[in-house]
Automatic annotation (TrEMBL):
Signal peptide: none annotated. Residues 6-312 form the D-isomer specific 2-hydroxyacid dehydrogenase catalytic domain. Keywords: NAD, Oxidoreductase. InterPro entries: D-isomer_2-hydroxyacid_DH, D-isomer_2_OHA_DH_cat_dom, D-isomer_DH_CS1, D-isomer_DH_NAD-bd, NAD(P)-bd_dom_sf. The keyword NAD applies. This is 2-hydroxyacid dehydrogenase. Belongs to the D-isomer specific 2-hydroxyacid dehydrogenase family. It comes from the Bacteria. Residues 109-281 form the D-isomer specific 2-hydroxyacid dehydrogenase NAD-binding domain. It holds the Pfam family 2-Hacid_dh.
Amino acid sequence: MQKPEILIAGRLMPAALESLKHAFTVHEAYETDALEAVIQASGERIRGVASSPFRSVNRDLILRLPNLEIIANFGVGYDNIDASLAAENDVIVTNTPDVLTDEVADTAIGLLIMTARELSAAERWLRAGNWQKSYPLTRGTLRDKRLGIFGLGRIGRAIAHRAQAIGMEVCYHNRSRLRDVNYPYISSLRELATHCDVLLCAAPGGEATRGLIGPDIFEALGPDGIFINIGRGSTVDETALIKALKDGTIMSAGLDVFEDEPNVPAELLAMDHVVLLPHVASASQHTRNAMAQLQVDNLTGWFEKGAPVTPVAETPWPRS
Ligand code: NDP
């Protein structure tokens, strides 16, 4: 029997690529020219796409693959995929939830402590041979502070659990109030920022959240406020964030994600009161292997058993 043909649009973990090569005829296309060539030569035969967050699976690509059945993303965030259009065209979209939740939550807490206690700056101080001079005490602390989580989903909950263990109060804002948690629900993002000392974004990217964290939110957070982002850079108005950090509207920020990755604004790079990470919240071998396996399982699950493992909310499953 002929193997189904799939497009590898975005670099995958080597082990995942090997597994996919066993089960499928794969077309690897990482650059625009290569993608165009694959679409021209094999677009009609491609039934699956394996994508990664850095490759957009947009309207144009979906519509140019007329026999597409499934898009399997590497990552829980799938704002790189036009999931609504996929659903309209009966194309399944899958992501890799749960297997990365604890790793991302660990990173978020690490970033939070690094930012509040200025640990990157302290390390730079030591490496510069300054230990003999007394190190300035940090203005920031997590003692008696309230954490406001924007996006209390799988990852947000895991962060909340850890934050409580280190003595922080937790409150949150989602579009809907959760019935199974006791953390105070705050009905708007602006109120959340007013109500907390540290605002942490763990919400998805995409059009619904684009630019929501702007000047008004930083003003509400205030001059002793800390902003942490492990969600998506698109949720933040980065120009407003830079201004807020420069003029003291907020105290500091810890960022794992940016508006135009991998380009980080020079103004942020020059600041000492920010901690900047290169989108590494899930980036341990352990967790990336688990994500890769789930991506492969979604593709083989669909083509071998007719059932994807983790379809996203826009892909109703089971189909009626
Ligand atoms: P979930 O879907 O479990 O949680 C998302 C939460 O955000 C839900 O509680 C949802 O509640 C809330 N939310 C969604 N849209 C909005 C909105 N417009 N306004 C307010 N709240 C909103 O996802 P996960 O927790 O698994 O992942 C969250 C995100 O974290 C991912 O989408 C991804 O972007 C990011 N991420 C980043 C990583 C990194 O490397 N930095 C790694 C992994 C994930 P409700 O629907 O009620 O609004």
